[in-house]
């Protein structure tokens, strides 16, 4: 056997050992705790450690596919590391094993530093690592034997492929281990991963859940709020189409019957409330447009839904915040945090909800099942905590949160924005009467005016559809006589306080993008 094919086989052995490690860990995680799976824990650690600019870049480039990109990158890194470990163990034993143990220890560290982790969470990774070391050692031994026999056989010409020859026997010995380990780890690992991600049980609980009727029903959507224009954003976003942004590689799977929320910190009385108790309270239904601070001008990281929940201010009333408190630090099951101004949550004019329902169903798992926060007028990163389990009343001076630790502004009021939905960027259209249409929002303040400009002509005032409320986006349109040629369409909105969007582009960091959405079209 030549050196090159030896190296290739050794690299493959490394990859198989890694597969065994991961598969064993998945199986053990299945028994112990789904989130103790090392691959996801390392992924989550990477999410927490990458610098803010890189994270913003990834969200910018890949939007809601950011997690797939991360996992693919991680997979590639694992593949390369594994191949190197295989070759090392073959050429320079025991450095392959040393490498595998090192990587395993780093993964173990990643697992046990997760927010919900306990020390037993280390077990899957350590077990996997031991299995990987055994397979690595055995397979490398057999590869040596095969290589030796093959080289010897090559010296006695003709004997290479003779059945029963030493070369054939040792080759079979190697392949049995390699193929066996590879096949077993793929089958077992994939099955265990699927079951770990398995939200089956909780999905069943969710599907069986019957949400109570609201005590305060959302007023019916006004006639004329939804314009009949092809391509305009739906006034109410379907749950399936609703944007999703979070740091959770694996959606936290929470049994609603086990869920409780604690109100702690600077309060006269700490409170604990179960899901059942929450559902028994008089629930309020309200439309709120949610918005991500990472949304670029013209971006899609916003959606409007009908939420069902209990006003957070009423719970706070029970806990009685102490004077001097000015913030609520909310924490999710998986350790994500947000800081929300206390006065916003206590505002009697604003329905900040502990939400359990979204568009008539229980919250979808990826949107925070069983309970999340929804606060009109603030970006999601300072208010919309999904899978929420604790509200700590405190002070801004004492607390910081997930994104504010990473350079984003402590306060995050939504900025007045507008978006052209149709025609879409780069569209080719026929000359004649064309609708230019879209949505505009200034949550909790309201939209007063939307204007459109074509090719630097004077601004024209668009027709506004009826609003649902000041907490939701509002549709608008103008009719445009499109003439042949290339055109630039621009939009700007004015909120109910008379502030008009400024032209100057401002980046999303630290407190949200600014600028006019601009669309180029070609009229044929
Ligand atoms: N637990 C948790 N809640 C979270 C986040 C998160 O990463 N983890 N992201 C926040 C951000 S940045 C936004 S914009 C909204 C998005 O909510 P959605 O995914 O339901 O649209 O959730 C917020 N709540
Ligand atoms: Mo966000």
From TrEMBL:
- Asked if Transmembrane is a keyword of the record, the answer is yes
Q: Where is the Oxidoreductase molybdopterin-binding domain?
A: 249-400
Q: Which one Pfam family would you cite for this protein?
A: Oxidored_molyb
The record's SUPFAM superfamilies line, in alphabetical order, gives:
E set domains, Oxidoreductase molybdopterin-binding domain
Q: Which InterPro entries match?
A: Ig_E-set (IPR014756), OxRdtase_Mopterin-bd_dom (IPR000572), OxRdtase_Mopterin-bd_sf (IPR036374)
Per the record, the domain of life is Bacteria
Q: From the UniProt record, which GO molecular function terms apply?
A: heme binding; molybdopterin cofactor binding; sulfite oxidase activity
Keywords, A to Z, come to:
Membrane, Transmembrane, Transmembrane helix
Q: Which GO terms describe its biological process?
A: sulfur compound metabolic process
Where are the membrane-spanning stretches? 67-88, 95-115, 121-140, 174-195
Q: Which PANTHER family match?
A: SULFITE OXIDASE, MITOCHONDRIAL, SULFITE REDUCTASE
> How is this protein named in the record?
DMSO/TMAO reductase YedYZ molybdopterin-dependent catalytic subunit
Q: Which organism is it from?
A: Conyzicola lurida
**Lineage of origin:** Bacteria, Bacillati, Actinomycetota, Actinomycetes, Micrococcales
């Amino acid at each position: 056997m030549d050196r090159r094919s030896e190296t290739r086989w050794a690299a493959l052995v490394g990859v198989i050992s890694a597969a065994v490690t991961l598969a064993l860990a998945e199986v053990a995680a299945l028994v112990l705790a789904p989130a103790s799976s090392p691959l996801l824990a390392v992924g989550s650690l990477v999410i927490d450690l990458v610098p803010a600019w890189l994270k913003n870049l990834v969200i910018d480039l890949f939007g809601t596919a950011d997690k797939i990109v991360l996992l693919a990158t991680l997979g590639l890194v694992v593949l390369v590391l594994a191949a190197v470990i295989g070759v090392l163990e073959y050429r320079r034993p025991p450095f392959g094993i040393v490498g595998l143990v090192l990587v395993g220890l780093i993964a173990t560290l990643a697992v046990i530093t997760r927010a919900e982790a306990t020390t037993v969470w280390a077990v899957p990774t350590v077990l996997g690592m031991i299995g990987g070391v055994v397979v690595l050692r055995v397979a490398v031994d057999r590869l040596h034997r095969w290589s030796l026999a093959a080289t010897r056989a090559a010296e006695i010409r003709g004997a290479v492929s003779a059945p029963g020859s030493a070369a054939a026997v040792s080759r079979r010995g190697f392949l049995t281990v390699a193929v066996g380990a590879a096949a077993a780890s793929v089958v077992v690992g994939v099955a265990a991963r699927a079951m770990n991600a398995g939200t089956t049980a909780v999905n069943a609980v969710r599907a069986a859940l019957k949400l109570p009727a609201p005590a305060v029903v959302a007023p019916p959507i006004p006639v004329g709020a939804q314009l009949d224009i092809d391509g305009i954003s739906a006034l109410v976003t379907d749950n399936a189409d609703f944007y999703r942004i979070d740091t959770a590689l694996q959606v936290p799977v929470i049994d609603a019957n086990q869920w409780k929320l604690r109100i702690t910190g600077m309060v006269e009385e700490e409170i604990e409330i179960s899901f059942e108790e929450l559902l028994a309270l008089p629930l309020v239904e309200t439309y709120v447009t949610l918005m991500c601070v990472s949304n670029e001008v013209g971006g899609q990281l916003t959606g409007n839904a009908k939420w069902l929940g209990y006003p957070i201010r009423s719970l706070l009333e029970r806990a009685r915040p102490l004077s001097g408190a000015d913030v609520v630090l909310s924490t999710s099951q998986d350790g994500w945090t947000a800081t929300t101004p206390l006065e916003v949550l206590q505002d009697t004019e604003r329905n900040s909800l502990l939400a359990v329902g979204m568009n008539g169903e229980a919250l979808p798992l990826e949107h925070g099942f069983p309970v999340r926060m929804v606060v009109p007028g603030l970006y999601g990163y300072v208010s919309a905590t999904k899978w929420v389990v604790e509200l700590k009343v405190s002070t801004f001076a004492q607390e910081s949160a997930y994104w504010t630790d990473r350079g984003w502004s402590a306060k995050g009021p939504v900025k007045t924005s507008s978006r052209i939905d149709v025609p879409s960027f780069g569209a080719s259209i026929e000359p004649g009467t064309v609708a230019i249409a879209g949505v505009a929002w200034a949550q909790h303040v309201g939209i007063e005016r939307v204007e459109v400009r074509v090719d630097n002509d004077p601004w024209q005032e668009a027709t506004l559809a009826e609003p649902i409320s000041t907490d939701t986006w509002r549709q608008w349109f103008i009719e445009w006589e499109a003439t042949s040629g290339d055109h630039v369409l621009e939009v700007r909105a004015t909120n109910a306080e008379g502030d008009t969007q400024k032209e100057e582009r401002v980046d999303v960091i630290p407190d949200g993008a600014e600028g006019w959405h601009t669309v180029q079209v070609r009229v044929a």
